[in-house]
Amino acid sequence: MDRRPGQRAGLTRERVLAAAHELLGAGGVDGLTMRALARRLEVAPNALYSHVPGKTALLDAVIDEVLAQVEVPAMDVADPVTGLHALMCSTYDVLLGHPDLVPLYLARNGARGANARHLGDVMLALLDRAGLREARAREALSVLIVYTIGFAAFTTGPPIDVPDPEPRAEQMRENFDSGLRWLLAGITAPSMRA
Amino acid sequence: MDRRPGQRAGLTRERVLAAAHELLGAGGVDGLTMRALARRLEVAPNALYSHVPGKTALLDAVIDEVLAQVEVPAMDVADPVTGLHALMCSTYDVLLGHPDLVPLYLARNGARGANARHLGDVMLALLDRAGLREARAREALSVLIVYTIGFAAFTTGPPIDVPDPEPRAEQMRENFDSGLRWLLAGITAPSMRA
DNA sequence: AGCTTAGTTGGACGGCGTACAGTTCGCAAG
DNA sequence: CTTGCGAACTGTACGCCGTCCAACTAAGCT
Predict the structure, then answer these.
(1) Phi/psi class of residue B4: alpha, beta or left (left: φ > 0; alpha: ψ in -120 to 50)?
(2) Which of B110, B146, B154 sits opposite A142 (nearest CB)?
(3) Within 10 A of A137 (CB to CB), how many other CB atoms are there?
(4) Does residue A136 lie within 7 Å of nucleic acid chain D, judged by its CB?
(5) Do B146 and A139 touch (CB under 8 A)?
(6) Residue B90's closest CA among B115, B63, B113, B68?
(7) I need a surface site. Which of A136, B158, B172, B192 has the fewest CB within 10 A?
(8) For the whole model, what pTM was predicted?
């Protein structure tokens, strides 16, 4: 801090979020502290509070930002179930790209930011095209979200006792896929369609 | 602390774990700190370290302890799928009884303690009787565990935006049940049986 | 030119987990 | 019955954490 009080440091909400993102990638959740963030931006810790309400809000923002990477299938995709499958797989992959973030994600159970809401809307639209409305649709929505985040959390956790993690990741990917197909089959079974 | 150094306080690993359990129930995860725990046991914070290696280990122990409450179906239950269903539902209910614990549970992804291992073995045995072996069985195991813990995490999280949480809990319980049935149906579909 | 206001700093508060050294007791061996 | 030892416990301290407050300064508007 070779700056005297009052001198601007060029801080922005965007710059703060970006730095937070980097810290998260480098040192995991434990590495992301207000002080470390300030250090990286060459600023006093308190300066952050002019751009972010607090740590919780910052985490929420970062979490939601990550969801922007999810590939949303075209709304007019031929088969809505295929679209849902692709959407959930993409979400799963994105989550795997930010392992330390997943537990947080789950603790807040599913970010409530703009991106999260958008994904939810897309899913509801696809479910609608698959024949599910209202309560049924919300039910299916919960199940799919929970399953995906839960599986990501499970996958990104510390390796249980297997020797090398490489085939494990692939194995988990397949497990995820299997379960997802079962769920989708159940969701769109004839008895479910209103 | 009206005790001078060296005087025994009658601490035991069991007493410590029990107090931790109580604190967890009363104040959630945030309420469980080494210092608060020591305060409740009328002891200096460091005294705990004679009975527990550290906070992480303590949490692991408490987490695994909770799993003891899960009702394990009789091994010779008529239908293994029904047994699995009952087992997962009991697990879900137990988890709901300790809301603040669930995120931790997921972060460590499924306790690795004695009780957790036992439950895993029971599930594998039931899956075996349902016709699943080896890789298939492990696959199904992952899916079921992830689904259950994930759903519990989702349910115990802060209410999204619904007005009153009472019907929500019931709703979620039904959602859980629906998804679970779909999963079990998929797992035991003819194509899966070796 | 002067005033307002937003951005930033130094410092502090209360809390956390836990390491280190010292004190004191219970208990087994002599 | 003494002695010695190891385990339990305390006091103190270190280095973190998130966040609030008052002071200060620079930029921008009038």
Answers:
(1) beta
(2) B154
(3) 21
(4) no
(5) no
(6) B68
(7) B158
(8) 0.85
